[in-house]
Design the sequence.
């Protein structure tokens, strides 16, 4: 079983839809949770960065972390064709011998069609 | 003013050759990383350096040798390339163990 599970999709939605992306994890030591967006043939771009449980909002993006359920989500409101990309969740415990090590989910391929 | 840059962008080579990939960051970060992304887009850490000191060395074949000449640079040298080394290699950097910023990637194809 992988430490971080993410449904690879693909996910196809119409423009303007609300998109929900999710990851589950097994390592209770994870404290930092990130979402990256990766366009085709580009490097991952950091979208959201959260510590511990709770919600964080940035424009059309909302990240949620539920440590008790070991479950994180990314919501995209009013989705646009420019949001079409692969979305990667990543986690870290940021301590000890795992200093800075990010463990990634497999990524979800999202297509927003006009 | 690219934050994290890598060279080359594409690398096509024959099995058995030795090649290097270079990474530079101008963010003033003290920690740098190498990640490998396979054909299924799965990203996995290979190495990390903090202030030029090796911190993380995942179970990577010893044909892969990272070198950090200074805090702004982290190079990856690969000996005796194999078909299975074909992947996209990403460099990243962060301040301590914080937010990581990725480079554009180097697409390595071993024939």
Sequence:
């Amino acid at each position: 079983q992988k430490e971080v599970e993410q449904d690879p999709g693909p996910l196809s939605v119409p423009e303007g839809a609300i998109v929900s992306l999710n990851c589950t994890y097994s390592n209770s030591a994870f404290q930092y949770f990130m979402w990256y967006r990766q366009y085709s043939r580009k490097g991952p771009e950091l979208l959201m960065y959260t510590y511990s449980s709770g919600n964080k909002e940035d424009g059309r993006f909302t990240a949620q972390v539920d440590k008790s359920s070991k479950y994180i989500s990314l919501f995209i409101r009013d989705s646009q064709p420019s949001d079409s990309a692969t979305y990667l969740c990543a986690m870290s415990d940021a301590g000890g011998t795992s200093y800075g090590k990010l463990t990634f989910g497999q990524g979800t391929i999202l297509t927003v069609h006009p | 003013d690219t934050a994290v840059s890598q060279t080359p962008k594409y690398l096509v080579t024959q099995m058995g050759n030795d090649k290097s990939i270079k990474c530079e960051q101008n963010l003033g970060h003290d920690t740098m990383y190498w990640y490998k992304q396979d054909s299924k887009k799965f990203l996995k850490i290979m190495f990390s350096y903090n202030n030029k000191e090796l911190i993380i060395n995942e179970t990577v074949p010893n044909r892969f040798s990272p070198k950090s000449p200074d805090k702004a640079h982290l190079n990856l040298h690969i000996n005796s390339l194999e078909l299975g080394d074909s992947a996209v290699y990403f460099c990243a950097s962060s301040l301590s163990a914080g937010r990581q910023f990725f480079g554009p990637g180097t697409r390595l194809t071993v024939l």
Summary: The two ends of chain B are 34 Å apart (CA to CA).
